[in-house]
Amino acid sequence: MSEKEAILGIDISKDKFSAALLKGEKKSQVKEFSNNLEGFEQLKQWLEQNQLEKVHACLEATSTYGHSVATYLHSLGHVVSIVNPARIKGFAQSRLSRTKNAQADATTIARFCAALKPQAWTPPSPEMAQLQSYSRRLRALEQMATQEKNRLKTTVDESLIEDIEAHLVFLETQIDNVKKRQKELLNEYSSLKSQADLLTSIVGIGEPTAMTILAEIGDINQFSSARQLAAFAGLTPQEHQSGTSVKGKTRLCKIGNPHLRKALYFPALSSIRHCSPMKDLRERFLEAGKNILNTVTGCEF
Questions:
Q1: Where is the Transposase IS110-like N-terminal domain (predicted)?
Q2: Which of 108, 124, 176, 274 sits 20 to 30 Å CA-CA off 89?
Q3: Per-residue b/e over 220-232, b at no fewer than 16 CB within 10 Å?
């Protein structure tokens, strides 16, 4: 890394984050900030004090805690990368890192960024971010409704039954409201509507699945190939073989977006039953010795 290059590693948490600054081969500087606008502005001042107009910032894709600081840094013209935590963990293990705290993690993230130069991240458009919020909220509400329905089957206390039924009515109302907002959003933005229409033209994909796919993928142009998109969803094969003694089964690599992976599973089953090309693809997988589950996941992309 040259003197002119500057790397910012960020270890994020709910209320605060640690930032490690690497400039050339110098020892990293580490500072802690609040995870709010005041903290972001202090981070900006810190970078200015170090006479840095542009840095390559890197942070892990952990929940939504890092989205605000990532968007803020991107708006200032900095390069931002959001990477899978498994990559950072593997990098730390390769360096035999033993210390585990926020400051050390931020430094590890910075060194990972300096060594591997991860792909730059682009914030989703406001409408895409809103669609993702609706999609994930809908899934959470549906999961809660399923849990309550299961409780209803095993509950014998009449007062509790009434309580569960009332909660179910509330959840169903909320589900309908979110679905309505999703449709309004699609109708408001023609680009989203046209993409959703293309997706629903595929056998096995209905409107709810199409909206989840759109929300989780974002800008599809960020993927240069179908295989890269499959890896993003965690749908690529993972072999476990070594020499002549280790011959494990090839399994699905689940290092990827779980929301997208789950949304594609049942459409894949449907396409295998009703779409001739997908039936043929599955047969080729079976002939190649793939197990039944892998043939389904292989048909998801």
A1: 8-158
A2: 124
A3: eeeeeeeeebbbb
Six-digit token pair at 133?
Answer: 């919020």
Domains and CATH numbers, the chain: 6-116 (3.30.420.40), 126-221 (no CATH), 223-298 (no CATH)
Distance CA 227, CA 198 (A): 20
CA 279, 281, 282, 283 torsion-angle sign:
positive
CA angle 132, 109, 33 (to 5 degrees): 75
Which residue type occupies 116? Answer: L
Within a 10 A sphere around the Cβ of 81, how many other Cβ atoms? Answer: 19
Q: What is the number of other CB atoms lying within 10 angstroms of the CB of residue 178?
A: 19
Helix (H) or strand (E) holding 6: strand 6-12
Q: 68 with 35: CB under 8 angstroms?
A: yes
